[in-house]
Amino acid sequence: MEISAANLTALFTGYDVVFQRGFDKPPSYYEQIASVVRSGSRQTTYPWLGRTTKFREWLGDRVVQALETHSYTIVNKNFEDTVSIDRNDIEDDSYGVYEPIIEQLGWDTKVHPDMLLFSMIKDAIANPSNVIGFDGQPFFSATHPVGLMGQAGTTAANINSSGSGPYWYVVDASRAIRPFIFQLRREYAVTRMSTVTDEAVFNRREFRYGVDGRANTGVGLWQLAYASNADLSNPANYGAARSAMRSFKTDAGLPFGALSSRNGAFLLVPTALEEVARQLLHAEITAGVGASANVATSNVWRNSADLIVSEYLS
């Protein structure tokens, strides 16, 4: 191919089509379980996380409630993914060899928010001090403080570490404020360095095609997520996780209402638990456990949540 402005424009426009083809292929889940927040600066602070209220009968003047004040900040990070295209390959009509890597670049762009989110969830277990919630506790903790400011409160746990298997997670994403946050400062966008006067072309014969964006992940309401490594093949362990979430109270002592609706309920599992999770959520009949192992019963947890399987949790 002759290296000309018109030919380069046509070539890189074709690469854009290939990129979009790769972008459209993989599934993406982060928007289903995380609050997507548009950030307007280097970092965003969430002073309202954790605040809860309760109604009272209006007698006399209004009573301004003393709410626990929290300050939670997510700092945006820069991300990029770039490939180079040798000028000689374009001149020698070998530019088609770059189509698979351009398509993969589109795939990687689509799944990058998922990779960030699920890697953070996994890290919240592996390195609890790396993922601290609005209350100053690790997001998955056995000692989340619960109670009104200035009063001796109790604690609640949103994790069960009594088992020995992989961790799985029950999530309620039905609220406006969800258990996880995906903070977007700048949309992922393609940049093409596709003119012969570019510095890299002059020095190294390299045209460049890359994607970059600014974003980060964080955690929201711990009351809407529960982690467990108990045996998921025993439906009672799944039921216990749901029961624990249903028992959570607000700072005002009222039911938090987690999992009060089927909509927005998710079970997150690593790939090792995919089969057992599908049986739990989709089978009509389930086998018993222990002494009742040979007794089949109706699966009470069928369709109780949507399933998300992520290799980034493995």
CA distance, first residue to last residue: 45 Å
Question: What order do the helices and strands follow?
Answer: HHEEEEHHEEEEEHEEHEHEEE
Instruction: Enumerate the strands of the largest sheet in spatial order, edge to edge or round the barrel.
Output: 7-11-8-12-15
Shape: globular
| Count of discrete structural domains | 1
Beta-strand segment tally: 15
How helical, in percent, are the residues? 25-40%
On the 0 to 100 scale, the average pLDDT is 90
Précis, in short:
The protein has 314 residues and is α+β, with helices and mostly antiparallel strands. The protein has helices at 5-24, 30-33, 87-91, 99-126, 199-204, 235-246, 274-282, and strands at 34-38, 43-46, 72-75, 77-86, 144-146, 154-156, 159-160, 168-172, 180-193, 206-219, 225-228, 265-269, 285-287, 296-298, 306-309.
What this model shows, in words?
This protein has 314 residues and is of the alpha+beta class. It has one domain (5-17, 27-52, 78-313). It has helices at residues 5-24, 30-33, 87-91, 99-126, 199-204, 235-246, 274-282, and strands spanning 34-38, 43-46, 72-75, 77-86, 144-146, 154-156, 159-160, 168-172, 180-193, 206-219, 225-228, 265-269, 285-287, 296-298, 306-309. Strands 7-11-8-12-15 form a 5-stranded mixed β-sheet, with helices on one face. A hairpin with an 8-residue loop joins strand 13 and strand 14 (296-298). Helix 1 (5-24) crosses helix 4 (99-126). The protein is globular, with a radius of gyration of 25 Å. The model has no long low-confidence stretch (mean pLDDT 90).
